Request: fold
Amino acid sequence: MSSTTKKPANVSLNITLMKSIYFFLFLPFLLFPQTKTTELPQLSISENHRFLVSADNEPFFWLGDTAWLLFSKLSREEANLYLDDRLAKGYNVIQVMVLHSLDVKNYYGDTALVDSNISLPLTVAGSEFENKAEYDFWDHVDYIIDLAEQKGLYMALVPVWGTNFNNGAISLEDAKFYAKWVSDRYKEKSNIIWLNGGDTKGNENLENWNAMGTIYKENNPDKLVTFHPFGRMKSSTWFHNEDWLDFNMFQSGHRRYDQEDPEFGYGQDNYKYVNDDFKLKPLKPTIDGEPAYESIPQGLHDPSEPFWTADDVRRYAYWSVFAGGFGFTYGHNAVMQMHKPGDKSPAYGAREFWTEALNADGANQMQYLKKLMLSKPILDRVPDQQLLVGKEGRKYDYQIATRGKDYAFIYTYNGKDIKVRMGVIVGEKINASWYNPRNGEYSFIGTFANIGTKTFDPPGSSKDGNDWILVLEQLK
Reply:
């Protein structure tokens, strides 16, 4: 019943009427068909090349969640549960691998490829879930992408994970065929973003990545394309000047300061990647697409090490966004691999199942970042350390500021005093408040003359994880 082809598969959407009682179960849907959900607006780059916008130049703050194994590990019902949860928590982008490995199978036992050959996608005629012989791996991917679109979620897809290219396992011609095939299949979907690469160094298999990136962009010119790089690396190192790369992505990764390899980048100081990207011409937006995951060992591979917490996740988020990032991607160790009962060997010391981890502290708290950033005009926002008087601090003492014309946000990770140069934003008087990144609540401090310098003392004692955002606004 299966068939293979080197041209795009046409997915049949024929509906078979059941006989006898089943006919009546389906009758309401036949008499009153459901209207297809309106397509999501296509995302594009803002005029100043720092942010993303949707229709009518509306700012789009990317709040991503990492669900690498969504397509392979979850059933349709589980996928619906997961997407509903992330939507309720304010996420609007889901990062997913399409092919984690060349022999990948999904929840239903369907394989994606014939003989692990990327140029031979395994498709069958029809797409009826009730008929197992007509439901394949790609139908399941289609189902989840459609489900996400109906809920208003964008899908940032890594078509094939970078490690699959090691040792020449995928030829250039096969890579080009697959890039064309997969981008043809989802050409009409409005909620797709392409993540070329996948935890890999761009200079390894460089010809393949450039060829695939070019095909994604030329075949889907209305969709955004970037490159997901190896840890402590950034896409701009290899591809910044490529026409197919719409925005930059970096992976600040999972190491702490003392674990950092000098050969690599800045590790926990993820704002430095943003600083580097904003020095490049032409200017392109940038984002931390893989910071340290919540509940994963520091350094990634040794579960005897301490695990990253919600406090650390918030620090990565506010540092990178205040530096100028157009959004942020969160990740949880159990959710990114969809760890569930029955898994024989969870990766990276996963301690929870994905259903429990959905409500991890950091997962809940990311919505407050998005709400804060969208509470003010965002498209003219700039990083501005000139708001800080004196030293900005090193490592966990680092304080970071961002502002618009009539507002400013300043982040401290450990509740130390913030000394502010007033008069940088407009207005004779300024209202000051504390914003709590753990619950999204404001605490009014007072109204102050917008001249000179002013020191603000955050609530609580000075310690790592007692993080606060000082919010300054023109009194109107």
In short: The two ends are 70 Å apart (CA to CA). Confidence is low (pLDDT under 50) at residues 1-37.
